[in-house]
Amino acid sequence: MDNLTTLKNYSYSGEKIFEKAQDFLPINGTDYVEFYVGNAKQSAHYYKTAFGFQELAYCGLETGVRDRTSYVLQQGKILIILTTPLVEESDVARHIAKHGDGIRVIALWVDDAYDAFEKTVLRGAKPFLQPETLEDENGTVRRSGIHTYGDTVHIFIERKDYNGIFLPGFEKWETEYRPSPMGLKYIDHMVGNVELGKMNEWSDFYQNVMGFANLITFDDKDISTEYTALMSKVMTNGNGYIKFPLNEPAKGKKKSQIEEFLDFYNGPGCQHLAVATDDIVYTVSEMRKKGVEFLYVPGTYYDSVKERVGIIEEDLEILKKWGIMVDRDEDGYLLQIFTKPVEDRPTLFFEIIQRKGAKSFGKGNFKALFESIEAEQARRGTL
C-alpha cells in the first residue's frame, strides 16, 4: 500500500489546509525545463545576457545529433534547455509551428524513472516516452515520460548513477562570453493555463495520477478586476518541492489573460516560471539594466503597502523604484515582480520572487497585477 505523507499545515487568509499527498512518487525537485525555440543559439545568448544564466552543455551536429540542437544553461539549481529543430518533419518543428517558442518539457528528478512511469501509467497517464537507459563513459541515466495538459510533458529523470556534465550525448559547452549570474536560485513554481472547465480535470490528474494534493484554491472572487477573472488551483507533491498552479478563465466583461494565452499559444501550456532569489532588488535591477521588461505597477499601489503588509526590511521607495510588489501571510511576507512576455506572442513570462517566510502566492497583489496585465492587453488590442 502506498504511504501517505501529510503536508505542512499551510494557512492562507485564515483558511487552514490539511491535505494529504500520496507519496507513491517521490520527487526530489525539478530536474530541468526544456524550451522548444526557433533559434536556440540566439535564445541562449538572450538568457545568458538578460537573466544571467551560465553555459553548461551542448548537443547538435558536432556531437552526432542530426535532428536538433540543444543548449543547456544553469543558474543556481535551475537548468533550462533550449532546443531548435534541424529538420522540417520533427516533434520540435511541429511544436514551434503550432505554439511559437514555449515550454515543452518539465522534467522531474526522481529516484526510479521506471517505477515512476509504471505507477503513473497504471493510474491513467498517457505514455510519452517509454522507459529507457542512456549510457556513456560517465555512467547511466534512466528516464521515462508522460503527457499532461496540452502538449506539455513530464519526463522522469533518474541520475544517481551518472557523473557527466548533464546527460549522455551532451558535451561541455564553453565560450568566452560569460556574464555574471543575477542571483536566481531555484524554480519556486510553474503555472499552467488550461481551457475553461478543465482546471478540475487537470487538478484531479495531478492528485490521482501523480499523488499531488491541492494546496490552495482561488476562485473568481479572489482573482478578478472590473473586466476579467480567472480561477486557479495550486497542486503540490508530498515534500512540497514541486508546485503547479493551474489556471482557467472565468467569465468577465472582456477577454482574460488566460484566454489571450490560449488563443496565441493555440491551446493549454506553461504560462510562467517563478524563479526565486535571495535579493530581489539586486536581481531585478540587474535584469532591467540588461533589457528585461517588467509589468508596470502604478505608483498608487505603494500608498497602502504599509497598512496592508506591515513592517518589512526593505526600503519601500526602492521597491517602488523597481516596481516590486509585496504581500504577507501568517508565515511572513514575499516580494515579487513579473516580466512582460519574453516571446513575440503574448504567452510565456517569468516571475521573480523572494520569500521572507511567506508560503503563499501574493493574493494581495492579484488585483494590481491583473490591472497591469490588462493595460498590456489593451495596448495589444486583445483585451
Characteristic terms for this protein:
383 residues; alpha+beta; 9-stranded mixed β-sheet; globular; disordered N terminus
Provide an overview of this structure.
- The protein has helices at residues 40-51, 91-99, 113-122, 199-208, 257-265, 280-289, 305-309, 316-322, 366-380; strands at 4-6, 10-12, 15-17, 20-22, 27-36, 54-59, 68-75, 78-85, 102-110, 127-136, 139-147, 153-158, 171-172, 184-193, 213-218, 229-236, 243-250, 269-277, 325-329, 332-338, 349-356.
- The protein is of the alpha+beta class.
- It starts with a strand and ends with a helix.
- Strand 10 (127-136) and strand 11 form a beta hairpin.
- The chain is built from nine helices and 21 strands.
- The strands form four sheets. A nine-stranded mixed sheet has the order 10-11-12-9-5-8-7-6-13. The protein has an eight-stranded mixed sheet with strand order 15-16-17-14-18-21-20-19, sandwiched between helices.
